[in-house]
Amino acid sequence: MRVQTQDDGTVQVRTGKVELGQGLLTAFTQIAADALGLPVDKVRVLPADTAFGPDEGVTSGSLSVQEAGMALRRACAEAREQGIAAAPPVVGSPLPRIDLPAKFAGRPSFIQDLEPVGLLHGRVLHPPTGTARLLEADTRAVQRAPGVLAVKRDGRLFGVVADSHTHAERAAELLRGALRWDCEAGRIGPAAADDASGAPQLIDERGLRPTVVHRTLKARYTKPWIAHASIGPACALARWGAGRLHVWTHSQGIFNLRRDLALAFGLASEAVRVQHVEGAGCYGHNGADDVAFDAAWLAREIPGRPLRVLWSRADELGQAPFGPAMAVELEADLDAQGQVLHWRHRLRSPGHSSRPGRSATPALLGSWQTAQPCEPPAAIDMPLASGGGAERNAVPGYALAAWQVSRHHVVAPALRSSALRSLGAYANVFAIESFVDEIARATGVDPLDWRRRHLRHDARARSVLELAAQRAGWATRARAEGIGHGIGCARYKGSGAWCAAVAEVETGATLRVRRLWLAADVGLAVNPDGVVAQIEGGAIQATSWALKEAVQVDDAGRVSSDSWARYPILRFSEVPAVDVALLLSPAPSLGAGEAALGPTVAAVANALADALGVRVRDLPLTPERIVAAMDEPATAATGID
Q: Is the pTM of this model over 0.85?
C-alpha cells in the first residue's frame, strides 16, 4: 500500500487490489479513514495501476480485506505519525458504496465506456476449438468492407480494425463467414470428471479405519463445467508507442497480466503498463486477461492509436476459462448406534487455476494460436495450506473420529479450466452437506441436530447454524406437499468466514427456490452493508448454478452453450427472497465473497430431498434429473449401500 497526503488535505491510497464490484474500494476507504483519523470524504483510494501501485498479487480468494486490509492499516498508521487529526471511526458502520452513485446515474464507469481520443475498434476471432485446423480463409471481402482499416492474420488468429464499433461488428461477421475450420483435427474427447490417471493423492487423514463396522453408507455427487457468464462481455484497450505497451483492463491480477504480456510480446516488464478499469462483474479468471492480449496484439497494426477489443457473447460463453467439472465419492462407516467411525472423501477434478503470471509461458488464449504459438500452461492447484483448489473444503469441518481425503487429477480435459468463484469448495460442500443429510435421515436424526452434535468444537460454526435455523423457523416449519426445507453449513476454506444457509423450495413443473436464510460470521465487518450484499449475491449465484448452469460441448468438441438460450442463468423473476444475518464480532476480518456458495447449493439440494423424498446428486437440479430420481426404485433412490 502507498499512502500520500495531498496539498488540499486529502489522502490518496494506492493499492494493488482491484474493484470487481465487491465494494472493496469502499471498505478500503473506511479502513484508511479510521487508521488515519480522517473523515471518509478526505480519503481517496485510486484504481490499481502497475505504474504507481504496489504488486499485491491477484484479487481473489476472499482475501483482500483479510490480508490487504491489514497492510493498509499499517501503512496508514505510519502516515498518521505525521500529525493528522483524529475523526470518529467508521469501520464497522454501514457506508454507502462510493462507486455506485455514478453507475446509478448512468455516468461512464466501466471499461466499455472508455473513449480516449483517436479510439479505434477491433474484433479478434479465435479458433472454435483448441485443436481446430484452418481449411479456408478468404478475407478479400472483409478488407473492402466500410470502415475497415486493417485485417490481420497470425497463424490461426484473425482480427479486424475499424473506425467504429458498428463497422467492427459487421467486419467481424464477414470475417467469421470467410473462415472454415476442421474441428475434428487433433481433437481430444470431452473429459468427464472421472477421467484420471495415476495413484490418488492423499490430501489429509486422521485416525484409523475401524475393525468393527455395522454398515457403510456411500454416495457420489457431481458438478458440471460452469461458465463465468458475465453480463458484460470481456473488453480491453491497448496502445503501442516507442516500444512500450499500455493496456486498460478489468483483470483480477494486473501485475500477473503485465508479466505474461511482456512474455508474449518479447518486452521487459517495465515496458508494459497495465491499468485497471472496472468491468461488469467478475467471479474468478474470466476472459479479461485473454481480451487484453487480443487488444495488444491487434493494436500493433496501428501504433500510437488506442484500440478497443470487445468480445462477443459467444466468445464470453465459449472461449473464456471454465470452472471445472468435479466428482466426489463419499463413504461413512457407522457403528450400531449410527455414529460415524470413519469418513472417506475421494474427489476427481482438473486443476482449478491457469491464471497469468504463474508459468514459464503466458496463460493468454491468443498467444497459443499465433504462427509461433506459446505452450499453454497446465491448470494447477495451490497448496491446501494456501487455500487449495479442487481440495478446497474437502476436509470435513465436523468432529469425526477418523477421516481420509484423497484426490485423482483429471488429465487432458477438453475445456480450459481455471478459477471460478469458490473453486472446489462449491462441489465439496455440496457433497459433504448432502451426505450429512443422508446420514442423518438414514439414522433417524434431524439434520440440524446432527450438525449441532458434530460442531461442539466450533462455537462460531454452531452459532451461524443456529442463527440461520432460528430465522428460518426450522423447529416450527410448516409441512406442505411439494414444499421442502434444507440446510447447509461450512467454514470457507476451513480458515475463512463461517456461513450457514436454509432454503425453502417448491416443486412443480420446475424446482423453485422460494426463500433463503443465511447467517455469516466474517469477524469484524468493515462495512456490514457490503458484507450482506456479498453474501446475498453469492447465494443468488449459487441458486443459478444449482438450478440451471452447465456447459455443453457438441460432438465436434465445440462449446455449444454459447448463448443465453443455450446457457440459461437465473432470471430476476426467479430470484428467491434472501434474508442475511451477520454475527458481529471484533475478531479479525475474514473475506465474505465466496462463503455462501457451498452452503446455499447444499441447502437447496437438501430441501429438494425433503420435499420429494428423493435425492438428486448431480448438478444442476434440472426437471429431467428430478423425474429420473423419482422413477428409480425406492431402494436405489436412497443411494445408500
A: yes
